[in-house]
Design goal:
Number of helices: 18
Strand content: under 5%
Radius of gyration: 32 Å
Oligomer: single chain
Shape: elongated
Number of strands: 3
Strand order of the largest sheet: 1-3-2
Distance between the termini: 71 Å
Order of helices and strands: HHHHHHHHHHHHHHHEHHEEH
Largest sheet: 3 strands, antiparallel
Mean pLDDT: 90
Length: about 400
């Protein structure tokens, strides 16, 4: 949402005095005539360029003072139409940015106050709130740390209204912003944690897990915060039914730093082990599963699917018998097809079942990790394919030669 490129232009028609009076008129529109006159009068006096005063257009300090007093009076979105609200705030932002550099403390102070006003407004007009904040986000330099404050407000509003999907947030957006914004690693961590918490609250746990990987990566690996976050992300990966790729976890320094924890040894089982290793681990550490709310039944399902994926990976282009699958998964022969269908649905294996031959023909399979052994297996298959293609080419060349001799 904050990446929108269709934000309305900030109009700047009229003099400074005319624009300020226009803003004041919007703020005071619901007051009676007497109150409105009393409200506007001090500003009108300040705008006048009497004897001994510079014209307001030439007096920057006076313009700053008038703007500061006007900003204090902004206490909500106002009662205008969406277009009027958007135009009002665009003009306010235009005056702030025309009087102060983007990186000045005044800009931060004024914008923080406006962000609090917008987020705290009881108005349910979410679309115009998003629009105003998106316009502000896009009007700031790409490297500005103020973009962080703006987007955190957008995220806060969306989360509080159960409207997170409206943001259409993507990991690529977040990665791009974090590489552009001139903010500290700690600020990056806080922002990513806010995103994680937002998706957890929205019960989009898989998305929350993906951002958790980014969050853990920004933490100081040896910190207590990193240890807690690392154990939490391991538990989440094991807990979620759709997470089968554990390799990314082993690329996080914070995760490696908890290698002496029981959850780390369980994670190693799911990267390289099978049912025997899982059962051995569970017999010694079952209380850990309860502590981290990881259901045993889900772990048993996942380790069986991963075991089947490993079997399939070592038999790509071949038939894998039902009996071999049943033996590897420690299930009855009658259950094999159910497990095959499950592993195909999980996107771990691609193949075709044959009840006639009681086998699964493997066309593709996902490796649980990609280390030296997997590279060697890939090399063997590539060599085999190259040899096969060479044989086909020889047949084609021979056929062409024979065809030419016949024609002659």
């Amino acid at each position: 949402m904050a990446n929108s490129t269709d934000s309305i232009s900030i109009f700047a028609e009229g003099t400074f005095e005319e624009q300020i009076l226009e803003l004041l008129s919007y703020i005071a529109r619901n007051r009676n005539d007497e109150d409105r006159t009393a409200f506007v009068a001090p500003f009108q006096n300040a705008l006048k360029s009497g004897e001994g005063k510079k014209p307001i257009e030439e007096d920057e300090n006076r313009r700053k003072l008038i703007l500061s007093k006007l900003l204090v009076e902004i206490r909500g979105l106002g009662d205008g139409s969406d277009k009027e609200i958007e135009g009002f705030f665009n003009l306010v932002f235009a005056h702030i940015f025309s009087l102060y550099p983007f990186d000045s403390p005044e800009v931060k102070q004024y914008l923080d106050a406006i962000l609090n006003t917008i987020s705290g407004s009881p108005s349910e007009r979410l679309s115009v709130k998003y629009r105003v904040l998106s316009n502000l986000f896009n009007s700031l330099p790409k490297s500005s740390p103020l973009r962080l404050s703006v987007y955190r407000t957008i995220l806060q509003i969306a989360t509080s209204k159960d409207n997170l999907n409206a943001l259409e947030l993507t990991k690529s957006d977040v990665q791009k912003w974090l590489s552009e914004w001139e903010i500290t690693n700690e600020e990056k961590s806080v922002f990513l944690k806010a995103i994680v918490d937002a998706y957890v609250q929205a019960e989009e746990l898989t998305v929350a897990y993906e951002y958790s990987l980014q969050y853990v990566q920004t933490l100081a690996p040896s910190s207590e915060e990193a240890k807690v976050a690392a154990l939490d992300v391991i538990a989440t990966a094991l807990r979620l039914p759709g997470v089968f790729d554990f390799d990314p976890l082993f690329k996080l320094d914070a995760v490696i730093n908890v290698k002496d924890h029981e959850l780390f040894s369980l994670l190693q089982v799911f990267l390289n082990g099978g049912l025997p290793e899982f059962n051995a681990w569970q017999s010694k550490h079952s209380p850990i599963l309860e502590k981290y709310q990881i259901p045993t039944i889900e772990l048993e399902r996942k380790i069986r699917l991963l075991t089947l994926a490993s079997l399939a990976f070592s038999h790509i282009g071949q038939n894998l018998s039902y009996s071999r699958i049943a033996e590897g998964l420690q299930v009855d022969l009658s259950e094999v097809e159910k497990w095959v269908i499950d592993v195909i649905r999980a996107g771990l294996v691609w193949g075709k079942l044959s009840q006639t031959t009681q086998s699964l023909h493997i066309s593709r399979a996902t490796s649980r990790s990609f280390e030296r052994e997997q590279w060697q297996a890939l090399e063997k298959r590539l060599v085999a394919w190259k040899s096969g293609l060479a044989g086909i080419l020889d047949v084609v060349v021979t056929a062409k030669r024979q065809g030419g001799q016949i024609a002659a």
